[in-house]
Amino acid sequence: RGGARAQSGGKMASTAAGKQRIPKVAKVKNKAPAEVQITAEQLLREAKERELELLPPPPQQKITDVEELNDYKLRKRKTFEDNIRKNRTVISNWIKYAQWEESLKEIQRARSIYERALDVDYRNVTLWLKYAEMEMKNRQVNHARNIWDRAITTLPRVNQFWYKYTYMEEMLGNVAGSRQVFERWMEWQPEEQAWHSYINFELRYKEVDRARSIYERYILFTVLVLVHPDVKNWIKYARFEEKHSYFAHARKVYERAVEFFGEEHMDEHLYVAFAKFEENQKEFERVRVIYKYALDRIPKQDAQNLFKNYTIFEKKFGDRRGIEDIIVSKRRFQYEEEVKANPHNYDAWFDYLRLVESDTDAETVREVYERAIANVPPIQEKRHWKRYIYLWINYALYEELEAKASKRTRQVYQACLELLPHKKFTFAKMWLLYAQFEIRQKNLPLARRALGTSIGKCPKNKLFKGYIELELQLREFDRCRKLYEKFLEFAPENCTSWIKFAELETILGDIDRARAIYELAIGQPRLDMPEVLWKSYIDFEIEQEEYEKTRNLYRRLLQRTQHVKVWISFAQFELSAGQEERLPRCRQIYEEANKAMRSCEEKEERVMLLESWRSFEDEFGTDATKERIDKLMPEKIKKRRKLQAEDGSDAGWEEYYDYIFPEDTANQPNLKLLAMAKLWKKQQQESEAAAMDPDKDIDESQT
């Protein structure tokens, strides 16, 4: 590096006389990063540290005589005055100047500086405080009083001046002067803490009557001027009276507070404090009355603390009934919140009603029921009304069973039936309950009128059944016949109705009428349960011992269906008919069934028929018939078939069992060929096994 610098220096010196050339920038050969990296933050920090190191410490100045002292004072005063002259509004310069003069015991000069500063900014609180503190520190009491008077006159809303002034007078033992300052302060109607400071001041000197008068003035300001309309001020006043054992005065304060706030601005804290005061005085009945009065009037969401304290009180001093009352009140509050959040939550209404029914009077229960049924479902769909309708049912049952009010019960039923949109849907349960209620009231015409109206407006199976059952209990069989006729006109496909109608005629002894009803029923083009109807008709003929008609019914039924159960039932009927030719007839039915089932695709049904036939032959047949049925029994084989998914793709193979009947084998030569192939394969396997075992061949030859 040194050589390079010397060469460059020589070149520049040689060309100094001529035209100056711009030196070329040397190229950096090593562009690798340095091992120690230095950040901008580190550079700034080091510069700051070195700057502090380079600053020389101020010289130590020792003043040895008066002239040097005066010279020092002159220089300092000139500096302070220059700072003030540069910026008069910076109060800190004035305060430093005054404090420096104070440190030199130049009180008069410091006082002059503070006065000059006040002329600049008399609203500065710190300036007044420093000025007064200087006077108090130097025991200039009258000057301090003068400054405090000027401060509270100039800035009466600065509470700090008043606190400092009263504290100074109290520390000086001037109680009357401090009281006078408090009185001047109270004329400005200050904040709450100022009043309490005045009260605490009087209490420190055992002036209870004066403290009470201050409380009265404070409460009067609260009531008339509404400066501090807060509950805690009344509570503090009452506790003050209680603390000094003026219990009658304390109770009167609480009563005045309750009267002042009224029912519009009720606060739970006031009633909790009032109740605790009475509890301390052992007035438990008063406590209970206060809690109940407050709970009945304060909104439930604002009375959590009240509930809690009432519960604790009842557990401490109440009986079981009182504890149950408070628990019921809490649950009522919870249910009120639930139904307020969602009026259509009918489960919450049910729980609420169950609670009020168990604990309150009838008027309250009716009020809650009316509120509940007023929440009609907004959509006229039956699924939305299923829970709602039970509110009406419970209401009616309560009026009838608990309140014993039959007129109100009838009104509830009628109002509910008028509310229902019968053109879209109805509730048969409601009509039937109303009719049963009228029957209990021995008012049969009204019950019949209600059921007749229901059938006319909105006919339903349940309504017809209920009406018919009512007339059956009353033994009005002609009315039952008419109702069954109307019912079957309304729902001719209902097999149960046909069966019940026929059973009624059978009970009444009109067999021909019952048979005619059955004939009409099986002649209907559409039935919901035809097998039940046919079975009932067949059982009816069997009960009447009309076996030929029963056989005809079976034949007619077999013309409509070839179901295996019909054939088995027909055969069992012939077996149980009790005639001499019952076994041949039964065997003939099985023969016909077997022939008819050959074309059936469901082989399991054919197997079921043959199983039933074999059980019959095992019990009543001969060896020949048993051997014959054994030859008819199928062979069970396992097969595989290809499966396809819904999209048509290959889904693999599936194993299943199939039946091969001997009768079908005789008619199909392919099956005979398959059997012969199986026999040949079996023989081949046996010959191969013999070839694999020569010892066995030697033993067989020796044998």
TrEMBL record:
<feature type="region of interest" description="Disordered">
    <location>
        <begin position="1"/>
        <end position="28"/>
    </location>
</feature>
<dbReference type="InterPro" id="IPR045075">
    <property type="entry name" value="Syf1-like"/>
</dbReference>
<keyword id="KW-0539">Nucleus</keyword>
<dbReference type="InterPro" id="IPR003107">
    <property type="entry name" value="HAT"/>
</dbReference>
<dbReference type="GO" id="GO:0071011">
    <property type="term" value="C:precatalytic spliceosome"/>
</dbReference>
<feature type="domain" description="Pre-mRNA-splicing factor Syf1/CRNKL1-like C-terminal HAT-repeats">
    <location>
        <begin position="404"/>
        <end position="555"/>
    </location>
</feature>
<keyword id="KW-0507">mRNA processing</keyword>
<keyword id="KW-0677">Repeat</keyword>
<comment type="similarity">
    <text>Belongs to the crooked-neck family.</text>
</comment>
<dbReference type="GO" id="GO:0000245">
    <property type="term" value="P:spliceosomal complex assembly"/>
</dbReference>
<dbReference type="GO" id="GO:0000974">
    <property type="term" value="C:Prp19 complex"/>
</dbReference>
<protein>
    <recommendedName>
        <fullName>Crooked neck-like protein 1</fullName>
    </recommendedName>
</protein>
<dbReference type="GO" id="GO:0016607">
    <property type="term" value="C:nuclear speck"/>
</dbReference>
<dbReference type="InterPro" id="IPR011990">
    <property type="entry name" value="TPR-like_helical_dom_sf"/>
</dbReference>
<dbReference type="GO" id="GO:0071007">
    <property type="term" value="C:U2-type catalytic step 2 spliceosome"/>
</dbReference>
<dbReference type="Pfam" id="PF23231">
    <property type="entry name" value="HAT_Syf1_CNRKL1_C"/>
</dbReference>
<comment type="function">
    <text>Involved in pre-mRNA splicing process. As a component of the minor spliceosome, involved in the splicing of U12-type introns in pre-mRNAs.</text>
</comment>
<keyword id="KW-0747">Spliceosome</keyword>
<dbReference type="GO" id="GO:0071014">
    <property type="term" value="C:post-mRNA release spliceosomal complex"/>
</dbReference>
<feature type="region of interest" description="Disordered">
    <location>
        <begin position="683"/>
        <end position="703"/>
    </location>
</feature>
<keyword id="KW-0508">mRNA splicing</keyword>
<keyword id="KW-0597">Phosphoprotein</keyword>
<dbReference type="InterPro" id="IPR055430">
    <property type="entry name" value="HAT_Syf1_CNRKL1_C"/>
</dbReference>
<feature type="domain" description="Pre-mRNA-splicing factor Syf1/CRNKL1-like C-terminal HAT-repeats">
    <location>
        <begin position="92"/>
        <end position="378"/>
    </location>
</feature>
